[in-house]
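Section 5.1 Outputs to date
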Amino acid sequence: MGTTLKRAAAKTTKVANGKAATVKEAKTKTAKNGTVKNKFDLHKSLQEYFGFDKFKGTQEKAIESLLAGHDTFVIMPTGGGKSLCYQLPAMVSEGVAIIVSPL
């Protein structure tokens, strides 16, 4: 059993008004459907942290749910990418996250 630790310092990103903000400050929620509109690019973060060009299956939907603050239970087959569903939100969010792996 391994653990994944996240970086303590929040990354900064440029927002529409040109000011730097932490990733957490750049996130907004939509009230209608509970999904998250991010002013940062999840695909860019996926490439930066994990080296992947695209998400597998429903990974992106699960990650958006987590970033919206919803309790999210992910069921995927072996090799389906469950770990990334929890690791990427931890990497782009402020604070401490403990992810026990394998899931």
